[in-house]
Each structure stands twice: as C-alpha cells, then as structure tokens.
Amino acid sequence: MKRSSTAVWEGSGKEGSGHISSDSNILNDTPYSFLSRFEDGSGTNPEELIAAAHAGCFAMKLSFILGAAGFTADKLEAKCEVTLDDGAITSSHISLSAFVPGIDEDTFAASVKDAEENCPISKVLNTNITVDYSLN
C-alpha cells in the first residue's frame, strides 16, 4: 500500500505560501504559510498534520490491540500535541480519554503502551513520545 500527498510552495520561506493536497482530496489545495506554521495565521502546517496522523494512527492501533484482547472500545478520543523547537520536532504527546467496558486497568495500560510503541506513526517519529490517559 502506498499513499501520497503533494505540497506546492511559492516564494521565500517567510513571505511565500503554499498548499497541500492529498490523493483522497480530503486535503485539496489546503493553504499553509509561515504565519500558519509559526504564528496564528489561517491554514494548516506540517506539525498539525503530523499530530493528526499520530492521534488517528494511535487510536486505531489501540482499537486493534483491544480487539485482540477481547475488548471493544465504546470511544477512544486521542488528542496529540507535537512540539517544534529549534527546527526539530522534540516531542509528541497523546492525551487519551477512553471508554472500554469491562477492561481492567493493567490490561488497558499494557494495551496503551503497545499502541504507543507500535503504531506506524510512532515508529516513524524520531522524538520523545508520551501518552497519558483516563479510563472511564
């Protein structure tokens, strides 16, 4: 399986702008710029997209792990915060709110750790990855 997206940038790093598109068209000429990346301008940015990818990948991987252990989550809500510092992504932190009927704390904690270490996005990121969670 292969997936792809395209970024087009025009102009200098600070004054220029660009847009990102994905093969699925979920991103379709979605704008990004210096302002959307480093300030509060409108549009997306690479770090936001990495955070979305990490949250989505982690939640899906955790769902598969829970299923293999005989549990089905009513809801897994993962919020990811990626930190960019000195030109490098220095951390990715996931906050998870989980509703998993019948699961015990130890099984859930082991499942979360497995997802943290083994979701494909975690494996590709060369940074500090942390997860905190509440099990409801």
Short description:
This protein is of the alpha+beta class and 136 residues long.
Topology readout:
Elements: E1 5-10, E2 17-22, E3 30-33, H1 34-38, H2 46-68, E4 75-85, E5 88-99, H3 105-118, H4 120-124, E6 128-135
Parallel strand pairs: 5-6
Antiparallel strand pairs: 1-2, 2-3, 4-5
Helix pairs in contact: 2-3
Relevant CATH superfamily of the largest domain: K homology (KH) domain
As a percent range, the share of strand residues is 25-35%
- Counting DSSP E segments of at least 2 residues, the number of strands comes to 6
Helix content: 25-40%
Structural class: alpha+beta
**Which runs of at least 5 residues are low in confidence (pLDDT < 50)?**
none
User: End-to-end span in angstroms?
Assistant: 35 Å
The mean pLDDT is 96
Task: Using the CA coordinates, give the radius of gyration.
Answer: 17 Å
Q: Walk across the major sheet and give the strand order.
A: 1-2-3
Largest sheet: 3 strands, antiparallel
**Helix-strand pattern:** EEEHHEEHHE
Q: Any idea how many domains?
A: 2
The CATH architecture of the largest domain can be named as 2-Layer Sandwich
- Look up the CATH topology of the largest domain: GMP Synthetase, Chain A, domain 3
Give the CA-based shape: elongated
Number of helices: 4
Give me some keywords for this one.
136 residues, alpha+beta, GMP Synthetase, Chain A, domain 3, 3-stranded mixed beta sheet, 4 helices, 35% helix
